[in-house]
Amino acid sequence: MTREQERDLINRAQAGSVAAYEQIVAHYQDRLLRFLMMRGLQQADAEDAAQSALVSAWENLSGYRSKWQFSTWLYTIARRCAIQRKPLQTNNDELDADTGLDTCLEQQLRDNVWSVAHRQLEPSAFQALWLHYGEGFSGAEVARIMDRTTVWVRVTLHRARSRLRAVFANDNPVVEQHEHSIS
Q1: Does residue 92 fall inside a structural domain?
Q2: Cβ–Cβ contacts within 10 Å for residue 3, how many?
């Protein structure tokens, strides 16, 4: 979805179009669920938090201001909904059996890297890392979602990358070769 298409859907949803909001939900639902699960929520808790965030966003859509990206606003709501739930171990689903071996190995390596990051980093550092590299948010957007400064985000990302470099260099030379998937 382009920014213009998204803006049009948001305007229509703010005017009361349920159909437009359903298209927005369809676009963001899986991303929100993945974000919440990477925060450590189990599947059911992540689904509940994502649903709560989407309902809350609908109820407060009139308060959304277009000077901010909609995704930043929505992820901020999702983060707040997730805070109300107890983070648990990540739940990595098995990969589809039809996936090719190379794709399967690459996916497993990415999952392993994120799993190591989840175990090795403070929760806030992991969340910043995931929002920036996993979801593609800019540093300013991460700062807004996490209610932090952009300087905090830059420093936290730098420290997280340094910590992971050290972990991968000491623990697993195979993972070190693929470190670029997170940096």
Answers
A1: no
A2: 9
pTM attached to this predicted model: 0.53
pLDDT digits (tens, 9 = 90+) for 38-62: 777 788 888 888 988 899 889 888 8
CA 11-15-21 angle, to 5 degrees, is 65
Among 115, 119, 138, smallest CA distance to 128 is for 138
User: What phi and psi, each to the nearest 5 degrees, are found at residue 138?
Assistant: -70, 170
What does the block give as tokens for 68?
């901010």
**Whole-number CA gyration radius for the chain:** 17
C-alpha closest to that of 41 among 90, 1, 111: 90
Q: Which run of H or of E encompasses 150?
A: helix 150-171
Q: Which residues of the chain have pLDDT under 50?
A: 87-102, 104-105, 107, 173-183
Q: Which domain holds residue 39?
A: 3-83
Contact between 29 and 54 (Cβ < 8 Å): yes
Looking at the structure of the chain, the number of domains it has is 2
Number of Cβ atoms within 10 Å of the Cβ of 105 = 13
Q: Which of 83, 114, 140 is the last residue of a domain?
A: 83
